[in-house]
Amino acid sequence: MVHQTTILVRTYECDGYGHVNNANFLHYLEVARHEYLKAIGFDYAACMKSGYGLYVTRVEIDYKRPAVLDDKLDVESMAIKKGVVSGILDQVIRLDGEVVARAKVTWAFVDAAGKPTRIPDRWNVPGLRPDS
Amino acid sequence: MVHQTTILVRTYECDGYGHVNNANFLHYLEVARHEYLKAIGFDYAACMKSGYGLYVTRVEIDYKRPAVLDDKLDVESMAIKKGVVSGILDQVIRLDGEVVARAKVTWAFVDAAGKPTRIPDRWNVPGLRPDS
Amino acid sequence: MVHQTTILVRTYECDGYGHVNNANFLHYLEVARHEYLKAIGFDYAACMKSGYGLYVTRVEIDYKRPAVLDDKLDVESMAIKKGVVSGILDQVIRLDGEVVARAKVTWAFVDAAGKPTRIPDRWNVPGLRPDS
Amino acid sequence: MVHQTTILVRTYECDGYGHVNNANFLHYLEVARHEYLKAIGFDYAACMKSGYGLYVTRVEIDYKRPAVLDDKLDVESMAIKKGVVSGILDQVIRLDGEVVARAKVTWAFVDAAGKPTRIPDRWNVPGLRPDS
Questions:
Q1: pTM of the entire structure?
Q2: Is the CA virtual torsion A60, D16, D92, A108 positive or negative?
Q3: Boundaries of domain holding C10
Q4: Across the interface, do C30 and B17 touch by the CB < 8 Å criterion?
Q5: Which of A102, A113, D25, D79 is deepest in the core (most CB within 10 A)?
Q6: Prediction ipTM score
């Protein structure tokens, strides 16, 4: 399953070059992951309240071309690996089909102490797996 | 008492004009208030943990001149009014003495439900008052 | 004319309380103003390229209630005053009809040197006026 | 040469967990690179004005432990690779010596069209090289 969401570049996200600042792409990826989690039935707020968390532990991102004000970006998110306590998402940001940025985001499921821990059944939803 | 702190303008805080984006001035004011609270012995983190909070309820800000990358801004914070559940701070951002922005920030002390409430003695430190 | 736009609260816009940070409301207002300008036929990017600018010179904002993750906020923008070089917008942020925040935003039309200047006909579009 | 700078975690940089949001680490790395460039005599603003630019083309970042409000972070930046049009920096964020995050940041020198280009002598300062 490839999850898709759309993000419109905002004025204050652009820097002195008129380009979206690098860090904002991480925000876009976070927005897309949040929508992806909702789409697969993973209730992030409830997860936090129950004392667990989903941390990002690693990001690899390649910036391919700049995005500018009013660009309507498509963000695709797809699970490509899933282990006992962690997994990897492939996320691609496109403008009119062209790749703007591509990232691999590693996440870990953590307990209240922030330690990676086996995902309880309630949170181990199928959509976290690559074959879903 | 006038509390003073210094903030160096960062790359990503500047927009397409090369100027600090308006919203970032609110960040600067927040940084300065946090330092001000520390200086007067108000432990913000402990306050939150004890179930209370300090909310901003109103901001009036006048932007007088732009700030740009690497500007070393001085931010002054001074209590100008103090009531039973709220107060007002005057905050001025300067560059080499010239006013860049000036704000009046109204705050309210709130309980766990977010309702304004009389400030318990522990948090009612003298530095919140104009005459301190 | 009341211009309306919708903004979905994002994960990273929320602070330690779980509430949208104050400065982010200024971002929301900026997003809404940008959409408002597009709607009235004011081309902001072209305006900047032609050497002019539209600066915010003053913001008064009242925070009425917190916004949280996934809130779908409605932002209304309405011109309430228009002078030769400047004007005032009333902007209201609502959640399900209830006011979350309300702001008066004063803007000035400026030349390449950043000085307020009479708005050239090309940019003096009717939608900037209260009676439009 | 290892360049060092210090960054104090700000209130609005922390999320619902009380932790610095992931994207803000990219901001910290950007602040540190800007200071590093100043330290090696690379005038970034002048570089932009002359029609060139320094783009980040890839970031690999590992998040090792959370940072929280008021943490005083040390950021080290060190050139580890230098080619004709690009290079790689190793950047480490520490708290009291412990690694909070570690990143490899690839940059490219670009012309006015945003295309990677051989670095002119004026900008090809020794400090960009690993052996400096």
A1: 0.96
A2: negative
A3: 3-128
A4: no
A5: D25
A6: 0.95
